[in-house]
Target: Phosphoesterase
Amino acid sequence: MIGIMSDSHDHMGGIRAAVKVFNQEKVELVVHAGDLISPFTAGAFDKLHAPLEAIFGNNDGERRGLMAAYAELCPLEDFKELEVDGRKIALIHGTTEALVDALRESGKYDLVIRGHTHRMEVTEGSTMVVNPGETCGYLSGEKTVVLLDTQDLSWEKVQL
Model:
């Protein structure tokens, strides 16, 4: 099982709550789909009991500081390809809908994980697209993450 989050935007309470859920659920991997924002957030992710994979979002302006702060947790990039339990995963922030659609339609991935919209949305099909919503709760008023079983692609929305 993996834990999926995005758009934490410095909200330390949301990040800590997500880390707590992921640790309680004993996820094997945590995936963050961008907009970490500040280097100081790395300290909360350091409490994870699972590895972290994260990417940059469109609001991550302090890239050098983020790369230094997250260096021991994971490398930060704009896009990542992952493989978990034989599932090919594309990880992108998703500022361009056409790019998200192209990844989904390419047939190369079992799963596309994206963020950016701050709206929780799961689209099932030959390529599943998961947007876990926002960990910060700033736009929607809801702080959410997703737990995803990589074996059968079943998922659960978790309110923080």
